[in-house]
Inverse folding.
């Protein structure tokens, strides 16, 4: 403990508290029942009598905790009901939420863990996908890891920096490169080969012209949208733009029929299915489970 006298916390030094703790030279007098209801570590400590008398019963004999004061305050804000609810704009910074996850990992606090994850999820779009992957990996959060992996696949490989690679780790990076290569290959196949018109509707006046125009518009539309070197579009947006194009001699009925094929076609859903499979396999190999410490 520092030679500088410890100060009593202005909020969390309760006269009726049962145990006194010292964090970063700040004294906290807290309630045993509140602590054990939120933390398995504190529950075990009190049940097994890990702190012999008089430790924790006076300021002079406060129980030392090796934590950052600001993070410990965030933890107490939550368990004592003083924290910001999800939806509060910019209530917590990225660093604060990450530090809080580190603390609840140490103290095994399921409720506070869910609280921190909910805040991260609510502001997920303020994170780079590599940052979400890092959080999901190190704190075992499947939905955050999965969302980060899918988001990273939407970024060109050349834009993945060394810092991003360090955040996600070598194993995840290798899986990312593999998935990226497979998806790029699939995208090229879809862009270059239009779905075949198996049957024409009654309003189709020229079967050959209909097929030729379908092929031409597909290449000029989907080929451009999916393979544009400067601004490639995801499948959903490419299909949306494609359906707004002019199809010249193609009959309205045939257009509608083929649009339905696009809506239900397995070619466009393959990417999502493939990504989900890769991500689930990766999480299994890395041991990422939401209940890993419970």
């Amino acid at each position: 403990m520092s030679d500088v006298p410890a100060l009593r916390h202005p909020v969390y030094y309760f006269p009726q508290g049962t145990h006194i703790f010292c964090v970063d030279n700040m004294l906290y007098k807290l309630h045993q029942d509140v602590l054990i209801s939120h933390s398995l570590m504190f529950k075990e400590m009190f049940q097994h009598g890990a702190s012999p008398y008089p430790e924790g019963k006076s300021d002079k004999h406060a129980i030392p905790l090796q934590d950052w004061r600001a993070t410990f305050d965030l933890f107490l804000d939550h368990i004592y009901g003083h924290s910001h609810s999800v939806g509060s704009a910019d209530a917590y910074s990225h660093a604060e939420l990450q530090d809080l996850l580190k603390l609840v990992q140490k103290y095994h606090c399921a409720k506070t863990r869910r609280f921190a994850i909910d805040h991260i999820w609510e502001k997920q779009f303020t994170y780079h996908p590599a940052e979400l992957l890092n959080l999901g990996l190190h704190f075992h959060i499947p939905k955050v890891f999965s969302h980060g992996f899918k988001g990273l696949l939407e970024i060109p490989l050349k834009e993945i920096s060394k810092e991003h690679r360090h955040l996600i780790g070598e194993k995840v990076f290798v899986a990312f490169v593999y998935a990226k290569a497979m998806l790029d290959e699939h995208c090229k196949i879809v862009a270059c080969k239009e779905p075949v018109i198996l049957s024409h509707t009654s309003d189709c006046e020229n079967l050959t012209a209909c097929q030729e125009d379908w092929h031409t518009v597909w290449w000029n539309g989907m080929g451009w949208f999916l393979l544009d070197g400067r601004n490639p579009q995801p499948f959903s947006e490419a299909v949306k733009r494609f359906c707004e194009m002019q199809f010249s001699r193609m009959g309205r009925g045939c257009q509608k029929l083929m649009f339905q094929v696009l809506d239900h076609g397995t070619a466009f859903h393959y990417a999502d299915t493939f990504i989900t499979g890769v991500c689930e396999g990766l999480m299994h190999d890395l041991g990422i489970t939401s209940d890993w410490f419970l």
Observations:
- The longest strand covers residues 7-13.
- The two ends are 32 Å apart (CA to CA).
- The longest helix spans residues 170-192.
